[in-house]
Design brief:
- There is one protein chain.
- The protein has one domain: Thiol Ester Dehydrase, Chain A, CATH 3.10.129.
- It contains three helices and seven strands, in the order E-H-H-E-E-E-E-E-E-H.
- Strand 5 and strand 6 form a beta hairpin.
- The longest helix has 17 residues.
- The model has no long low-confidence stretch (mean pLDDT 94).
Length: 130
């Protein structure tokens, strides 16, 4: 859950769209920690996870005080990449949907195969979403 705070809003009191990308990043980081048991502080010891692509559709505005529920679903894991779907809802109303591709990179910023334990955890998430 993410409450829309003053810092997320423009002068009209609605979420300024770049703030959604911060929320998405926070959600992905929490997903790696809670769902995969692989917190970013562990991930960052050997590499990183930059976003290579993100396509977002904004379907309704969010306002100061709204409670957003962001859900992450793993769609596909490649040798070095991961496709995610992120949906934000307030009550039953979809506020945005994002399709994102993340790439696992080593300390030099070069794409690298997923660590085997992380790849296995991601594969289990994909199987569980089916």
């Amino acid at each position: 859950m993410q409450q829309v705070l003053f810092k997320h809003c423009d002068p009209a009191g609605i979420v300024f769209y770049p703030r959604y990308f911060e929320m998405i990043s926070d959600c992905v980081e929490a997903f790696f920690d809670t769902a995969l048991g692989y917190p970013f502080e562990k991930l960052l010891r050997t590499g990183g996870l930059p976003t290579a692509r993100i396509d977002t559709i904004f379907t309704a505005p969010s306002r100061h005080g709204d409670m957003l529920e962001l859900q992450v679903h793993c769609e596909k894991i490649g040798r070095t990449s991961l496709n995610l779907n992120i949906t934000a809802r307030c009550a039953n109303e979809v506020r945005f949907k994002a399709d994102s591709t993340l790439v696992y990179v080593n300390k030099k910023g070069k794409p690298e195969s997923w660590p085997s334990d992380l790849r296995q955890a991601l594969a289990q998430q994909i199987e569980g979403d089916v």
